[in-house]
Amino acid sequence: MIKAGIIGSTGYAGQEIVRILLGHKDAEIVWYGSRSYIDKKYYEVYGNMFQIVDDKCMDDNMEELAEKVDVIFTATPQGLCASLVNEKILSKVKIIDLSADFRIKDVATYEKWYKIEHKSPEFIDEAVYGLCEINRDKVKNCRLLANPGCYTTCSILTLYPLVKEGLIDPNSIIIDAKSGTSGAGRSAKLANLFCEVNESIKAYGVTTHRHTPEIEEQLGYACGEKILINFTPHLVPMNRGILVTAYGNLKEKVTYEQVKAVYDKYYAAERFVRVLDKDVCPETRWVEGSNYVDVNFKIDERTNRIVAMGALDNIVKGAAGQAVQNMNLMFGLPEEEGLMMAPIFP
Asked: What 3-state class would DSSP assign to 232?
């Protein structure tokens, strides 16, 4: 039985890790970390856990936690994991970090986009970028895992086959993405109040969103060169979900069958990536509450562009579900263990 500790268990991603691990036959949670709710019972923070989780919330003492568990999930703001991790801890426990602290390999790029100093750059090269469908073999043997972001997971998986096979000019990529409000976290923010969000949609982080360099870096690895993209996120009035619509210039004329074969090459054997039937567009409602990513594409012969689309649940495959999927790989378990919940609807 894998003993797990969660630092940041009372955020949206943290509580989703709790929900998933409660149904995982090979893992148990022994530490519910939360700096904001120390000594408060977990179900008092999340009423859905009444008579399910009776444990009290504890602090974020990673040194002590490393002595008690096999894996630590850090579902915390940028900078915290990097400030806590050290060689002594990593020699005892595996860490799955849901922040951006170890996702970007260039320290200067991280510090430029996140506006903070990196506290443990010596571990960046070692950290594995945990996009399971692409880095599965590397994930299996790592001790420090950088769990990808929600926008990035959806964007990369939507475009990866096209970029990897050289079907599109990677520097022509434009990504239009939309997220539910849970993507902004649980802390109180004026812009996320019901009256501010309801009956509205808005772009934000235009040309400056912090997931941009992460997408560029990973798609750059796929095509073997550094690339620049346009990425624009939008906030929509729903709880969960990411929808990506991405555009790229085709290098040559292709048929639907040719492109479908490329997607099937990479995803036909993947449990959690579903390539939809022809002309069916991904919708967030068909992945909500699940670890699935739905992808599809449409060729625009008139402009010689391709429109690639993807949808996922930002808290599950975009955060907690992917973290558990990575944990399964790191401990030699079936990749889908604890994650075979069907999407919920309505």
From this structure: strand
Using 50 as the pLDDT threshold, list the residues of the chain that sit under it: none
Distance of alpha carbon 3 from alpha carbon 69, whole angstroms: 5
What is the pLDDT at residue 183?
86
Decide if 300 contacts 250 (C-beta within 8 A): no
Q: Which residue in the list 57, 150, 154, 223 is annotated as catalytic? A: 150
Q: What angle do CA 280, 285, 287 make, to 5 degrees?
A: 85
Rounded Cα distance between 29 and 34, Å, is 14
Asked if 297 and 231 count as a contact pair (C-beta separation under 8 A), the reply is: no
DSSP per residue over 202-230, as a string? EE-STTT-TTHHHHHHHHHHHHTS----E
CB-based contact 11:318 (threshold 8 Å): no
Please name the residue that has the structure tokens 């944990």.
327
Predicted pLDDT of residue 185 = 82
Enumerate residues 6+ apart whose C-beta is below 8 A from 61. Answer: none
User: If DSSP codes are grouped into helix, strand and coil, which group holds residue 298?
Assistant: strand
Three-state DSSP class for 22?
Answer: coil
- Residue 132 known to be catalytic: no
Residue 184, both tokens: 């902004």
162 by Cβ neighbours in 10 Å (0-12 / 13-18 / 19+) ranks as buried
The rounded distance, in Å, linking the Cα atoms of 297 and 259 is 8
**Cβ atoms 85, 30 nearer than 8 A:** no
Residue 61, both tokens: 């003492």
43-60 per-position pLDDT tens digit = 999 999 999 999 999 999
CB 214 within 8 A of CB 100: yes
State both tokens at 195: 């009256």
Between CA 70 and CA 89 the distance in angstroms is: 11
Burial status of residue 225 (CB atoms within 10 A of its CB: 0-12, 13-18, 19 or more):
exposed
CA distance 141 to 166: 29
Instruction: Determine the pLDDT at residue 285.
Output: 98
| Terminal Cα distance for the chain, rounded | 34
